[in-house]
Structure formats: structure tokens, C-alpha cells
């Protein structure tokens, strides 16, 4: 049994090997990019909009609302990154209903790449929001003694992100494969349905966790600032119940 | 029994043990989290959205311990690194 899509070679030549992970990643990317482009080519702001535009608006608004709920004060800054993560993982997992398709997220390479994106995005957003010095000082909180633990935490949560997504999606494929061997037809279908739910929830979890990490890096420690008599940093606390208003 | 058989037997046993032990604790933890979240929603239905989201995130965090055990047992069963070592060792 192929435990990973990495070993499933689709095409070989010119000294290169194209495995299923890369091929299906490209397929998902093409689907998302071409689909989004085709829909956004004919955007209009009249009262009657096309169903596709309606769908995209619902998706974007929902993602933006979720980001705002997590506690980021400017959701639009994080929307491209977090939204892309969510849409890619969700599409990659949900396309599992297509016969012959294997989710590229069932390969540790893909999930590790996505987790590395988060690992890099967290300091990038943090430094952009709070400045280099203040961001780096955040690692030495509450005391300098915690510095190694904070760095360790940063690394371990990246590994956790990668392994969690990989394990969940891979377990779905492996269980379906095992069940096809011992109890064909009905049981695998049920497990596949369960796999769709897990796949979608995992996409949500991945995006939300990425957002939580980014939010914790960008949000200043207001309590610590007050304690030392400094003015609280410029970022205001996110307002809890204020609805999101579109920025024009 | 040569070393290959020994490695296979120990791997299978350990894989079963890993997934068995590794699923008990997360199951208990998730049950506690879910029960608490249900109680909270029953008390404060207005906050159901926030509670549900936090519940999902925490469930995923708790579940990841079980997933790690699963990944380890899968590695033991399908991608055991020691099998190749045993194959290359002469007389192994």
C-alpha cells in the first residue's frame, strides 16, 4: 500500500520525476487560480450579481469575519495569507470525492511546506506590525529565562501543524484503503464521508491556528506595558462586538 | 527467529500498543472538553459561536496527540526504518 502520494510516480523523464503530490498540488492550484480569475473577471456591483460572484463574496466575507473573531484588528492584512491557506487545504481535501485523486495534503512534504509558510509569516507580520525590536523582545517575555522555551515552542508548534494535517488526511486515506480490503463497498464510503468532514475541519483548524499564532505575535502585551508604566502600544485591543466594516 | 522477524513482531506489537494507549488519553480529554463546551452553550446560548470555534480549535489540539501516536504506528507498520537496517547488516 502506498502510504504517501510522494511514492506514486505519475511521469518520469529528462531526469525529473513528477510524483502525485506535485501533480495534484498543481491541479488544485490551477483550479483555484483559474476559477477565481474567471469569476472575478466579470465582477459587478449592481443589485443582481452572478451566483459565482455571490459564492466568492460569501467565502471571503466568512473568512474575514473569522479572522476578525480571532482577534486581529485589521483582518484585511491577514486575509490573503490565511484565506489562501484555508482555500488551498479545503480544496485539496474536498476534491477527494473525485475518483483517482489523492489529496496532496496526505503527504508530509506539502503540510511541512504549508507549516513553514506559517513559521515565516508569523515573524514577518509581527515585525511589520510592532517593529523588529519589540517583536524580538516578545521572545524574552515574561523573563529572559523563557527565551529558549519560546523559541522551542515556535518550532514545535510548526511541527505540530504539519503533522496534525498530514496525520488527519493520511489516516483518512489509509483507513479507506484498509477497509476496502476487508469490508468493501459500504464501509469505505462512510469513512470517505467522514474524511470529507475531517478534511474540511482540518482546513479550518489550520487556518485558524495560523491566525492565532499571527495574532499572538502581532498583538502587544498590554498588561506588561501597563505594569512598567509605559503607554500601551499603538495597537488597540480588538473590539469584541463591532461588526466588520468594509474598507473602501 | 532472525532479526527481521523479531523487528516485525516488535513493530506490530508496539504499533498496536501505541495507538491503544495513545487514543485513551485524548479521548478522555476530548470528552471533557466537549462536555464542558456543551454545558457552557446550555448556560450561554448567545456565546455559542465563540464557544464552538474555541471548542473546535482545542479539540484539534487535543486530538493531535492521538494523531502523533497514529503517525508513529503507521511509520512502524509501513515505513519502519529498522527493517532496511536489518536487511543490510550481514547475517542479520
Automatic annotation (TrEMBL), chain A:
Family: Belongs to the ATPase A chain family.
Membrane-traversing stretches: 12-34, 78-102, 108-127, 165-187, 193-215
Name of the encoding gene: atpB
GO cellular component, one term: proton-transporting ATP synthase complex
Membrane topology: Multi-pass membrane protein
Subcellular location(s) per record: Cell membrane; Membrane
Region called Disordered, residue ranges: 223-248
Its job: Key component of the proton channel; it plays a direct role in the translocation of protons across the membrane.
GO MF term set: proton-transporting ATP synthase activity, rotational mechanism
CDD domains registered for this protein in UniProt: ATP-synt_Fo_a_6
UniProt keywords, alphabetically: ATP synthesis, Cell membrane, CF(0), Hydrogen ion transport, Ion transport, Membrane, Transmembrane, Transmembrane helix, Transport
Name of protein: ATP synthase subunit a
Gene Ontology biological process terms from the UniProt entry: proton motive force-driven plasma membrane ATP synthesis
Species the sequence originates in: Futiania mangrovi
Low complexity biased stretches: 237-248
From TrEMBL, chain B:
Top-level taxon of origin: Bacteria
One Pfam family, short name: ATP-synt_C
Broad class of the protein's primary localization: membrane
Keyword Repressor: no
Keywords: ATP synthesis, Cell membrane, CF(0), Hydrogen ion transport, Ion transport, Lipid-binding, Membrane, Transmembrane, Transmembrane helix, Transport
GO terms for cellular component: plasma membrane; proton-transporting ATP synthase complex; proton-transporting two-sector ATPase complex, proton-transporting domain
Ranges where the V-ATPase proteolipid subunit C-like domain occurs: 13-76
Cellular compartment(s): Cell membrane; Membrane
Molecular functions (GO terms): lipid binding; proton-transporting ATP synthase activity, rotational mechanism
InterPro entries reported in the protein's UniProt record: Alt_ATP_synth_F0_Csu, ATP_synth_csu_bac/chlpt, ATP_synth_F0_csu, ATPase_proteolipid_c-like_dom, F/V-ATP_Csub_sf
Residue stretches spanning the membrane: 55-79
Site note Reversibly protonated during proton transport, residues: 63
Record's bilayer topology term: Multi-pass membrane protein
Entry-linked HAMAP family: ATP_synth_c_bact
Family of the protein in this entry: Belongs to the ATPase C chain family.
Function: Key component of the F(0) channel; it plays a direct role in translocation across the membrane. A homomeric c-ring of between 10-14 subunits forms the central stalk rotor element with the F(1) delta and epsilon subunits.
Name of this protein: ATP synthase subunit c
Chain's gene name: atpE
Amino acid at each position: 500500500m502506498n502510504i504517501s502520494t510522494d511514492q506514486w510516480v505519475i511521469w518520469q523523464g529528462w531526469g525529473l520525476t513528477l510524483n502525485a503530490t506535485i501533480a495534484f498540488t498543481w491541479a488544485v492550484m490551477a483550479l483555484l487560480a483559474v476559477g477565481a480569475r474567471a469569476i472575478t473577471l466579470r465582477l459587478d456591483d449592481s443589485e443582481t450579481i452572478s451566483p459565482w460572484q455571490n459564492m466568492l463574496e460569501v467565502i471571503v466575507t466568512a473568512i474575514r469575519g473569522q479572522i476578525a473573531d480571532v482577534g486581529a484588528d485589521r483582518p484585511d492584512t491577514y486575509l490573503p495569507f490565511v484565506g489562501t491557506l484555508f482555500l488551498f487545504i479545503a480544496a485539496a481535501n474536498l476534491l477527494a470525492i473525485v475518483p483517482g485523486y489523492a489529496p496532496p495534503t496526505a503527504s508530509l512534504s506539502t503540510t511541512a511546506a504549508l507549516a513553514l509558510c506559517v513559521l515565516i509569516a508569523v515573524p514577518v507580520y509581527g515585525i511589520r506590525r510592532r517593529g523588529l525590536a519589540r517583536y524580538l523582545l516578545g521572545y524574552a517575555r515574561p523573563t529572559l529565562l523563557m527565551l529558549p522555551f519560546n523559541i522551542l515552542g515556535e518550532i514545535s508548534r510548526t511541527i505540530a501543524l504539519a503533522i496534525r494535517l498530514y496525520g488527519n488526511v493520511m489516516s483518512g486515506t489509509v483507513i479507506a484503503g484498509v477497509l476496502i480490503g476487508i469490508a468493501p463497498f459500504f464501509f469505505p464510503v462512510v469513512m470517505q464521508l467522514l474524511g470529507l468532514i475531517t478534511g474540511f475541519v482540518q482546513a479550518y483548524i489550520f487556518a485558524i491556528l495560523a491566525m492565532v499564532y499571527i495574532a499572538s505575535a502581532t498583538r502587544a502585551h498590554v498588561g506588561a506595558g501597563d505594569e512598567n508604566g509605559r503607554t500601551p502600544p499603538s495597537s488597540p485591543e480588538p473590539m469584541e462586538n463591532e461588526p466588520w466594516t468594509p474598507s473602501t | 527467529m532472525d532479526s527481521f522477524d523479531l523487528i516485525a513482531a516488535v513493530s506490530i506489537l508496539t504499533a498496536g500498543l501505541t495507538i491503544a494507549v495513545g487514543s485513551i488519553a485524548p479521548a478522555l480529554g476530548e470528552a471533557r472538553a466537549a462536555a464542558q463546551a456543551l454545558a457552557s452553550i446550555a448556560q450561554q446560548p448567545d456565546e455559542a459561536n465563540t464557544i464552538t470555534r474555541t471548542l473546535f480549535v482545542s479539540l484539534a489540539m487535543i486530538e493531535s496527540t492521538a494523531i502523533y501516536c497514529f503517525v508513529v504506528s503507521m511509520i512502524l507498520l509501513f515505513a519502519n526504518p529498522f527493517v532496511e537496517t536489518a536487511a543490510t547488516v550481514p547475517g542479520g
